[in-house]
Amino acid sequence: MTNHPHEELASNRRAFMKLASVAAAVPTAAALLGGALSGSAAAAEPDGLPDYAPVPSSAFGPALNEDGYFVGQIKDNLYWVTDSYYQAMFLTTRTGVVLVDAPPTIGHNLLRAIDKITKANGMPGKVTHLVYSHFHADHIGASSIFDKNVVRIGHTETCRLLRLAGDPNRPAPSVTFEDTYTLRVGGETLQLAHHGPNHTPDNIFIYAPDQATLMVVDVIFPGWVPFRNLAVSQDIPGWIKAHDIAMKYPWTTLVGGHLGRLGVRADGRLQKQYVDDLLTSARAATASVELTPFFEKYGPTGNGWAIFKHYYAAVTEATARPVIEKYTGVLAAADVFTYDNAAVMTESLRVDIGDLGPNGIRP
Q1: What domain count does the chain have?
Q2: End-to-end alpha-carbon separation of the chain, Å?
């Protein structure tokens, strides 16, 4: 993997905080008008779509085969599959295959990948167990391509949510657990744990101790900034905390569930720094962006929603700008989703953490 300037980022914390405070104090015209983040993309091309900063080469994974997937060994009997957008993981054992997640974009290529590996290593190719990381359809929506007798395992909340959804492509798990569950199949082991709500109420940590590999989905995105709106997470404080929980596991390889490559511990540290910087910048913006101009503009008309639409756009702009500047060229798509991530972080700061800025208790 190409080295990242992690040490430089860590040592530049004080300079970043200064940059964040300056950015927060000067909301841009784009923010005042509710437009897109200034500088987040180059001018639109003739096709109407903007250009963005180049993706660092370190963000890319291995090339796909002619069927549109890559399957590779993590360690021993543990493997992973990707289509460059989603990932699954599987263990080959002497009694069958344990699969973790079934993303529909990979779909039947999961069967092809498993067949390719088990024929090569002489293990049984039948999937006997399917572990759900969480209930979201984009990660388990191909569960239905596997036999109905496959033992499906998930958190109790996963089971409840899937029964409510009634999606035939996502059969509810037949084996559930609350806190921890150790799955032993054919001489191989997976340790499942629920550490509280994060991306979703049911998102679990799947650890393969013999291979020092952790799979936790929609938390850490190796080489990239998190997907928009902080990975569309339902519990932002829980999602932030999940980074610390993940780093406490003694893993050397991470399966993050998205994009084209595996993660190493430096990826976890780098994303933690990105999230910390985003929160630091949101605090600075909330403390510095003045609410008065928005009241003066829209207050006389009684348009309260316009006041706060443009005020929070200015806070988001001020939050995002220094983070984009710091991470462009370091994390892929820093200029694509940081504005969306900043918007969610500022909202969480207000409603979850209680940092209300100018909307605090009236004196």
Answers
A1: 2
A2: 54
